[in-house]
Amino acid sequence: MVYKNFNGNTLNYDLEKFDFPRWALARINEKYPEVEALETIHKTVPLNEVSALQTWVSQGCETPEFKAILDDFLIENIKPLVNKDFLIQRFGTLRVVMPQQEKTGRLLQPHQGVFVGNGVGLRTVWTPFTRAYESNTMWMCPVEISRDITRKVINERWSHEEYQNFSHKHSYPVTLEPGQSWLFNQEMMHGNINNVTDITRVSMDLRIMLRGDNYGRKYPGQYFRHLYDWKNKKHSYMNSSESFLTYVGWNSQYSKHLPMVIQRSFIDKYLIKNDIKINDYTQENEYLDHCPNLQALTSSIDNIVLLSIYSLPDNVEFRHKIYETAFSNNCKLHFAQEDIILSSDEDIKIIEDYLTWGKSYLDWRLDV
User: Fold this and answer.
1) Is the per-residue pLDDT at 85 higher than 50?
2) Which bin fits 241, alpha (ψ -120 to 50), beta or left (φ > 0)?
3) Is the pLDDT of residue 366 over 60?
4) What CATH code is carried by the domain that includes residue 196?
5) Which secondary-structure segment (H or E) carries 61?
């Protein structure tokens, strides 16, 4: 398989226009005002607070202000490099690599996308916010060597040490400055070695998903979103006269192996986030793939919260019957993982687009 423009390619972009480092430092200073520079985070932030710092910055990536910068960046710099429509990772992943991180258990082992559920339809845009060089940067293997490592570690059951040593032997450091990104595909093995420089490296992992390709476990709508979807975001939650139920089931390919407690835990986060109080919990009887209970509930309940759009029936006809019943009775369906509220024909188009965006398979031999 050939990955045009994503085989370990450097992208130069306008840092003044898309100043991610300045944004990240400003976001960090809201919680950690003592941090003077990204490169010196390790001097002021205790080790046991680094994960909280990463979470704080990642939460900032959910704001419309950041999404506006990011989406413009992708349109200007990434869209010209791909020949398909693409979705964008919903939340960027911040990486903070401190000096001597191996001693603290923060060393990222070599891996490729198939090991973490990424289908080959994904492409990665790796963007350091600080200078990335020598031991503080990402180390990467060429795609052919990466495929060979993947076959051997799985088929020959290599030990952790064999796998690490072979990967490091064939890796090279990715050297970049702020204002540059590294573009690579999911088959390329990558990871970190111990950072023996005197600076902290801060970077952002960001992935795009090409239409029609394999997305693995990273579902469109959940892990990925449409560009500029935040502009049309609407939230219509319960008022004093509206009824709310939550709904779980095991009646789709996605939901059939998800225990009730897992489904409800995600739904509960959605309820808490949006200050929603429910009348009750409900569920679908197993084996009833047309979801008759859900369809009946849309006739009498104002709002129903489901785990995901992938909890809807796999059968298109069954799904549309539920849409029609919900619309005719002014029932809004909430999908917790995608943060979508179904209340119009446009919402149906968005949901169906996500459901049919690509394909999911996890057999590593198809990817290598």
Assistant:
1) yes
2) alpha
3) no
4) 2.60.120.620
5) none
Q: With CA atoms as reference, report the closest residue to 102 among 192, 184, 31.
A: 192
Sheet containing 340-342: give its strands across: 280-283, 244-248, 303-306, 332-335, 340-342
Instruction: Tell me whether residue 347 is in a domain.
Output: no
CB proximity list for 25: less than 8 A, separation 6 or greater = 35, 37, 38
**Residues 187, 113 contacting (CB under 8 angstroms):** yes
Length of the chain counted residue by residue? 368
Is residue 202 domain-shared with residue 294, that is, in the same domain?
Answer: no
User: What range does the domain containing 321 cover?
Assistant: 244-342
The amino acid at 154: I
Q: Does residue 365 carry a pLDDT above 70?
A: no
State residue 368's pLDDT score: 42
Mean pLDDT of all residues belonging to the chain = 92
pLDDT above 80: residue 1: no
Please enumerate, as own/partner, the contacts of 363-368 that have beta carbons within 8 Å and a separation of 24 or more: 364/114, 364/150, 364/154, 366/214, 367/113, 367/114, 367/119, 367/120, 367/186, 367/187, 367/214, 368/114, 368/147, 368/150, 368/151, 368/187
Residues 23-41: what's their mean pLDDT?
96
Does residue 311 share a domain with residue 192?
Answer: no
**Alpha-carbon distances of 183 from 42, 250, 298, rounded to whole Å:** 27, 38, 45
